[in-house]
Amino acid sequence: MREGPCYRCLYPEPPPPGVVPSCAEGGVLGILPGLIGVIQATEVIKMILGKGEPLIGRLLLVDALAMRFRELKLKKNPECPACGQNPTITRLIDYQRFCGIAPETSEEKTLKNGIPQMSVQELKQRLDAGEDVFVLDVREPYEVQIASIGGTLIPQNQVPQRLAEIPRNREIVVQCRSGGRSQRIAEFLAQQGYSGVKNLAGGILAWADHIDPKVQKY
User: Fold this and answer.
1) In degrees rounded to 5, what are phi and psi of residue 198?
2) 130 and 191 assigned to the same domain
3) Are 36 and 57 members of one domain?
4) Where in the sequence numbering do the catalytic residues fall?
């Protein structure tokens, strides 16, 4: 809304890179986006109908553990780069660059923290060719019920106790939903002496995008 503050009024500059974990790293309880989404949808309906008192100028803080809602009053920043009197941001920007995330080089795309990154296209070709690749799925059992591309399921928290089930004489491709958890497990396996470990870049989401759109994205 023109008369209210925007997100840049509250946070005009991004935090330093690495300070705030991503959702893949920090995790998020699935029901929370639903809770906030319902509140946002309610606000939209109120504004369309012109009814009620919208959350303009009020920041709603939700503490789901205590189930408490608090409000902070915010004022529009006249120097805001997005909605101020002389805005400098008038179109979409490179969000990764804004957050200080440098674009990946070709080497980083194929090697991350010493772990080779395998594309979903390469994995599909090698599986179709019948190559002896051990695909290790480190997601949770409920995730496998939503979507799966095959492989041996060992949830990430169980991997240290189940190393005997992971062969040392085969090439191992670790996969998860988007590639974050699998990267950490691949690094752990490399530390344990596994030499042929690769991470499936993009995980299940990349498989759904580039190999099989029938695979459920979640």
Assistant:
1) -130, 155
2) yes
3) yes
4) 23, 176
